[in-house]
Each structure stands twice: as structure tokens, then as C-alpha cells.
Design a protein that fits this description.
heterodimer, A: 109 residues, three-stranded antiparallel β-sheet, 0% helix, globular, B: 125 residues, mainly beta, seven-stranded mixed β-sheet, four-stranded antiparallel β-sheet
Chain lengths: 109, 125
């Protein structure tokens, strides 16, 4: 079973700053099967990025994804007030099973 | 507009049963695979179960295998999760999520593109 480890656990930044979130897999993952989600308190997760680098419909271009193999990154180029949330990476494994990372909280500094 | 609305959550004693429902609208339900994902209080996301569009393929997380049963009724645009032998650690918000697919040449991309608002299941004596 592939384990996804996200770092850091918490990122304290100010609006306007750049956020770089990491997702590391315990073994190589196909980029086609790597997605990122944003979750705000009391809300369902929202799809941001799929296929490691494709933005979902309606997602601002300040969000970008990159990476391959075991190392993937979600970058928020300039943080807006509404971007402070928890972010999860997700990978699709064998037999149609899915794994999530433990999440990175982006909080206001 | 795509909508997924879960229902059926509540308080249940350990060892008890509960059936969750997810009502889908705004898309051709019978064309999409569906999943259940849960989130324990203050914790991260955990995938629970998958069902293909025709119900021909079903998978479960090891943590619920043998106790939970996923099903769907395409005529009613509904997804279900029958939960038996519930344990304290099953306490969570349960979300239904649509599995989106994008075909990019020989590559197929999978992701969860729409989620319901969740329904809370509390297992406690």
C-alpha cells in the first residue's frame, strides 16, 4: 500500500505570500493519478488539481501542481484570504483504491 | 448543477447498523463510478468504498471490509452505504463523491470532482 506523506503539517504565511506544499509517496505514483483538494472548516473537500498538474474547472491560476514519481508539489503563487484552509493530496492505487495524505494546514501568520 | 446530498447519519450504539444514502442530481448518475469517503472528527480523509457505474465492480478499504456494503440504484439516482457491526472508530462525517475521468490520449486521469456535504455518524454507547 502506498503511503502519502505531506509536509509541512502547518504552514504559517501572510496574504500575498507564496505557499509550497509537498506530497511524498512511499513508492512511485503515476502522475495521472495524483490529485489535490482544498477543505475549509465545515465544508466538503474541493478538487483543485488532477493529473498532478491540471487545474479543475473554476480553479484560479494562482494554484499549480507539479511533480512526478514520488515527489509532488502544490504551489499557491500569492495567497488570498480565502486560500487559508487544509490541503490534501490523493493518489489512485491498485484495485480502484484511493489514499489520501494527512493534510497540510495553511494558516494566517 | 451537480448535487450530491447525503442522509441517514445519526447516533448508533457499538455493534449497531446504519444505512447512508446519497441522492444525486444534475448529471447522468448511471454513467459515473461513485465512492464513499469519511473523516473522523479533527482528522484527515479516509477512502471507504468504490462502486462502478453498473455495480459490477466494488472495492472496500480494509478497515470496513466485511462490515460495510456499498450499493446503488441507478433508476433512483441513489448511492447507499450499509454499515453493520459499527465500532467507535467508525465515528466520522461520511461523504459521497463522484469519480471523474478525463481521457488524455492513452492516459486516463481519475479524481473526485464532486462531493456531497456529508452526514455525521456517531458510534457511542
Amino acid at each position: 500500500e502506498i503511503v502519502l506523506t505531506q509536509s509541512p503539517g502547518t504552514l504559517s504565511l501572510s496574504p500575498g505570500e507564496r505557499a509550497t506544499l509537498s506530497c511524498r509517496a512511499s513508492q512511485s505514483v503515476s502522475s495521472s493519478y495524483l490529485a489535490w483538494y482544498q477543505q475549509k472548516p465545515g465544508q466538503a473537500p474541493r478538487l483543485l488539481i488532477y493529473g498532478a498538474s491540471s487545474r479543475a474547472t473554476g480553479i484560479p491560476d494562482r494554484f499549480s501542481g507539479s511533480g512526478s514519481g514520488t515527489d509532488f508539489t502544490l504551489t499557491i503563487s500569492r495567497l488570498e484570504p480565502e486560500d487559508f484552509a487544509v490541503y490534501y493530496c490523493q493518489q489512485y492505487g491498485s484495485s480502484r483504491t484511493w489514499t489520501f495524505g494527512q493534510g497540510t494546514k495553511v494558516e494566517i501568520k | 448543477e451537480v448535487q450530491l446530498v447525503e442522509s441517514g447519519g445519526g447516533l448508533v450504539q457499538p455493534g449497531g447498523s446504519l444505512r447512508l444514502s446519497c441522492a444525486a442530481s444534475g448529471f447522468t448518475f448511471s454513467s459515473y463510478s461513485m465512492n464513499w469517503v469519511r473523516q473522523a472528527p479533527g482528522k484527515g480523509l479516509e477512502w471507504v468504498s468504490y462502486i462502478s457505474s453498473s455495480s459490477s465492480t466494488i472495492y472496500y478499504a480494509d478497515s470496513v471490509k466485511g462490515r460495510f456494503t456499498i450499493s446503488r440504484d441507478n433508476a433512483k439516482n441513489s448511492l447507499y452505504l450499509q454499515m453493520n457491526s459499527l465500532r467507535d472508530e467508525d465515528t466520522a462525517v461520511y461523504y459521497c463523491a463522484r469519480e471523474g475521468i478525463t481521457f488524455g490520449g492513452v492516459i486516463v486521469l481519475y479524481y473526485f470532482d464532486y462531493w456531497g456535504q456529508g452526514t455525521l455518524v456517531t458510534v457511542s454507547s
